[in-house]
Design brief:
The complex is a heterodimer of chains A (175) and B (263). Chain A has 175 residues and is mostly helical. Chain A has helices at 2-11, 15-37, 40-57, 68-85, 87-92, 101-110, 120-126, 129-140, 145-152, 156-174. Chain A folds into two domains: 2-92, RNA polymerase sigma factor, region 2, helix turn helix motif (Rna Polymerase Sigma Factor, Chain: A, Orthogonal Bundle); 101-174, Orthogonal Bundle (Arc Repressor Mutant, subunit A). Chain A is globular and about 45 Å long. Chain B has 263 residues and is of the alpha+beta class. Chain B has two domains: 3-81, Arc Repressor Mutant, subunit A (Orthogonal Bundle); 154-260. Chain B is built from six helices and eight strands, in the order H-H-H-H-H-H-E-E-E-E-E-E-E-E. Chain B has an eight-stranded antiparallel beta sheet. The longest helix of chain B has 64 residues, at 87-150. The termini of chain B are far apart. The chains are: A mainly alpha (175), B alpha+beta (263). At the A-B interface, helix 2, helix 3, helix 4, helix 6 and helix 8 of A face helix 2, helix 3, helix 4 and helix 5 of B. Chain B: It comes from Gillisia limnaea (strain DSM 15749 / LMG 21470 / R-8282). Chain B: InterPro entries: Anti-sigma-K/W_factor, RskA_C. Chain B: GO terms for molecular function: sigma factor antagonist activity. Chain B: One of its GO terms (cellular component) is plasma membrane.
Amino acid sequence: MQQDQLIIELQSGNEKAFERIYQLYSVSTYGIIYSIIRDEKVSEEVLQDVFLKIWNNAPTYDTNKGRFFTWILNIARNASIDKIRSKDFKNKQLNLKSDNFVDILEAKSNSSGKIDAIGLQKYIDLLEPMCKKLIDLLFFKGFTQKETAEELDIPLGTVKTKNRVCIDKLRSNVL
Amino acid sequence: MDINKYIESGILELYVYGALSESESSEVSRTLKEYPEVRVEVEEIEKALLTLSSAAAPYDPEFLLQSLKEKLSRRHKVIDLPKKGTNWAAYIGWAASILFLIGLFTLFNENSELRESVQALQAEKIQMETDIAEARNNAQKTQELLFVLRDKNILEVPLQGQSIAPDAYATAYWDKEKNITYIDAKDLPSPPRGMVYQVWSLKMDPLTPSSIGLLDKFESDVNKIFRLENINISEGFGITLEPEGGSTTPTMEQLYALGTVSS
């Protein structure tokens, strides 16, 4: 697989491979970080830290443990959560009025000047409220299945099956 | 395994989220390698999530790549330089430190060997000093004996072995002026444990024994020549075997040697 080869090259310290990885994952990772931090500049800093970690820790990534995307996702979520818990971030007293990724998407589609606002609305429209909550907790916030069930007060099994339905809907529109 | 059921269960979505435990994740990774349809499903889920999260980004952070790469290359050079430039130095360093360690170890070994031999020599020296002191002591005794033998005032009294030990033999050298009697007991058998030879001065008519002393430390005395005070006007000498500490009167059954002073 091409993806596997790319990861092997990244692990051996190939800068070209790093560039390719950045192109593939930086926007998504920035989205994850921003959805937690809600500050563009701070999110940029964290994004850079995350990619430096990806570069430095690449040799520790084990394909048998999970997806490379998931590995990056974990680094990004952990770095973002560390950041918002840090003292200097709290001191900035950033305005966190938005609740989840849905608000970001809505805010973006409302500002007509942004190019990629086109089509965002459809993600939002198709997702029912429970789906929005599930995806926010499981994907953007990195909750476990159990934590999600407790947070939303639904049975553990429901988290898995309901989330499957939500992602299916998303896929039918995205792909 | 019913692959469709597996896919429909929703476990693959949780897998991509990173919401599964480590062991569950490893299991999905295995299944994914085994079943291409699972792999395709996972890749599609991943793609959808990649698109969704990308939509949450305020803008494409492409412009950050350049400064990020500079940070990488700095780090990279630091790692690279020692690889190319200082390999020899590193090898020499390692070789030097190994040699140093070997040297240290050798010195340590040598040192402890030397210390051991010093200790052995010291023990030997003490032994030799003891030997010398003993030899000096012996020499002194021998010289004293020589004086005794050469002295014209000394009376030599041979003491013959008696029925209990016919082969026994002893000699008394009596210095009347100094009231000293030397007993040469070289040919007496070693006394058994807990027993000791006792020397008696004898008056003949009637037979009256008076103790003049014990042949103490018989076993350890090399010359077997004993110096005893004798103030008696002796007419003979006898040696009996007595219990340790000696007796007030001789045990006649244990008479080993007997001799009379010839007048």
